[in-house]
């Protein structure tokens, strides 16, 4: 049972990441490969504040969101000037910078040693140390992020995002200041990713920079490409598939010494097949 | 009185003048046509006026005094200027209805977050789609439309800009709206242009079909190699020797 709860918690955390990235990549068409950086900023903010000040998890999560909003608005201002491939490369660079900071600002992050002993959330004197209770928190926050994404994408704002994705120059002719839209959705997306980071830090109780590398951003991108671009349910479905698939592959019976590599191979093959036969993903509404 | 005028507008691409000191003026309640051989700078003029492209010299004036020189496109739009594209540039992976709704909705970033497409907007959008006769395609993705339907959706977006409640467009540029349309559709589009004119809009038509120019234009400008060659009624300019030479060669 504990194993199932563990998987459900991971699915929740990665659903939040998928939903957040889908707003930028699926709806707005900006190929951002930096979601793990904001995920990491959320995780580190929570870890540091809870360890150093014994701060309450929920407060640390809010501060994490604020920190991410500040940092993402600076980065987003720069990135909003780019489009297409340049946007992808710029965002890519930002992920590497944040990773380097995590790795080298030893006074704050302890670098590669990571931060152990991060506490569990505490609510009205009730500590959610039981995984079952923690899962409830994850579900509540995942549902919150899902509903927020739905509200955004179904609003007039959401329709403008899609128009930017289709032809930014034309939607400008119709009177929209597109860079404000691109910046705002980038910030919202980063703030959501930071929630996932706080949950992750508190759940695993240990973080190090290796959880927030570029590969992780690509993993999150794979979630939404697989599940469905520009579809919020698709993002959740993608998280479910990407978390459960390696678990399922455990029972395929690859020899233990190559099992890990074989999983990577299966991922890769799956993505290639998908790109050929269903480029918008399982439930997607948009082809890259 | 003119609604929009350009004064000695100039645009140079890599040392070549695409538009060389062109002064045009567009009046409300009239269809003004801009004609000329391919590459004479008609589409470039529209790009300069709508802010899609910066220009090198000259002025663009709204009404009597308001200068909109080298303003970004999204600001130009607030002065009621809008356009179609010669090669349709639709929001391809969006439905036909959404292509219209996005033109009608709130321009303020934060307000738009809290706006849903209510019945009011949908009613206007559906009325416009009926007017250009692509209503039955409203739930299709724009990418699946035929060429003629794409041109009609371009026109529908411009009509939608003209129906906006907060700041309707009244200077409408149509860049070859008839190209590739069936005869029935040509009739439909020309009647729409006349209706827009009768509503008091300044309609600007870039077109090659001389019969349509004769039928629709109140005033015609002829450009050649980026320069102003002639102007007047359709009858005047088509009997102008310079115009005939520009079209038929020496």
UniProtKB/TrEMBL annotation, chain B:
Protein name per Swiss-Prot or TrEMBL: ABC transporter domain-containing protein
Domain ABC transporter per the UniProt entry, residue ranges: 4-250
Lineage start: Bacteria, Candidatus Nomuraibacteriota
SMART domains associated with the record: AAA (SM00382)
GO terms for cellular component: plasma membrane
Organism (species): Candidatus Nomurabacteria bacterium RIFCSPLOWO2_01_FULL_36_10b
Keywords linked to the UniProt accession: ATP-binding, Nucleotide-binding, Transport
SUPFAM superfamilies: P-loop containing nucleoside triphosphate hydrolases (SSF52540)
Gene3D superfamilies named among the record's database cross-references: P-loop containing nucleotide triphosphate hydrolases
GO-annotated molecular function: ATP binding; ATP hydrolysis activity
């Amino acid at each position: 049972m504990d194993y199932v709860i563990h998987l459900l918690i991971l699915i929740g955390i990665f659903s939040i990441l998928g939903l957040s990235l889908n707003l930028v990549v699926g709806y707005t068409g900006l190929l951002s490969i930096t979601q793990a950086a904001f995920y990491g900023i959320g995780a580190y903010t929570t870890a540091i504040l809870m360890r150093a000040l014994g701060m309450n998890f929920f407060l640390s999560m809010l501060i994490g969101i604020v920190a991410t909003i500040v940092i993402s608005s600076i980065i987003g201002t720069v990135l909003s000037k780019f489009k297409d491939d340049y946007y992808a490369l710029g965002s890519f660079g930002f992920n590497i910078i944040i990773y380097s900071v995590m790795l080298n600002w030893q006074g704050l992050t302890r670098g590669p040693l990571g931060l152990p002993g991060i506490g569990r959330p505490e609510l009205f004197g009730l500590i959610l140390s039981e995984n079952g209770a923690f899962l409830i928190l994850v579900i509540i926050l995942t549902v919150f992020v899902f509903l927020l994404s739905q509200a955004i994408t179904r609003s007039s704002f959401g329709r403008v995002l899609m128009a930017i994705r289709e032809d930014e120059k034309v939607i400008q002719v119709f009177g929209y200041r597109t860079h404000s839209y691109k910046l705002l959705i980038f910030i919202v997306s980063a703030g959501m990713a930071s929630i996932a980071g706080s949950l992750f830090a508190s759940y695993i109780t240990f973080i190090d920079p290796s959880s927030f590398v570029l590969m992780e951003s690509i993993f999150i991108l794979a979630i939404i490409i697989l599940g469905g671009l520009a579809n919020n349910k698709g993002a959740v479905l993608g998280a479910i598939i990407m978390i459960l698939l390696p678990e399922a592959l455990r029972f395929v019976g690859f020899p233990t010494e190559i099992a890990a590599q074989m999983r990577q191979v299966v991922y890769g093959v799956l993505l290639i097949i998908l790109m050929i036969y269903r480029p918008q993903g399982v439930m997607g509404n948009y082809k890259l | 009185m003119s609604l929009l005028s350009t004064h000695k507008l100039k645009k140079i691409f890599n040392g070549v003048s695409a538009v060389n000191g062109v002064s045009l003026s567009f009046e409300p309640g009239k269809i003004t046509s801009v004609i000329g051989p391919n590459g004479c700078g008609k589409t470039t003029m529209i790009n300069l006026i709508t802010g899609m492209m910066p220009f090198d010299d000259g002025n663009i004036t709204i009404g009597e005094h308001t200068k909109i020189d080298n303003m970004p496109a999204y600001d130009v739009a607030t002065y009621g200027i809008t356009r179609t594209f010669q090669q349709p540039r639709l929001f391809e992976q969006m439905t036909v209805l959404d292509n219209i709704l996005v033109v009608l909705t709130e321009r303020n970033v934060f307000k738009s977050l809290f706006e849903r497409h209510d019945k009011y907007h949908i009613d206007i959008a559906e009325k416009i789609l009926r007017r250009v006769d692509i209503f039955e395609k409203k739930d299709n993705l724009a990418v699946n439309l035929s060429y003629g339907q794409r041109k009609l959706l371009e026109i529908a977006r411009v009509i939608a800009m003209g129906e906006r409640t907060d700041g309707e467009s009244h200077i409408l540029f149509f860049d070859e709206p008839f190209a590739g349309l069936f005869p029935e559709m040509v009739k439909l589009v020309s009647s729409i242009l006349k209706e827009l004119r009768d509503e008091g809009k300044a309609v600007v038509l870039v077109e090659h079909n001389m019969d349509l120019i004769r039928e629709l234009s109140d005033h015609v400008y002829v450009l050649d190699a980026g320069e102003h060659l002639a102007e007047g009624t359709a009858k005047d300019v088509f009997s102008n020797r310079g115009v005939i030479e520009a079209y038929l060669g020496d």
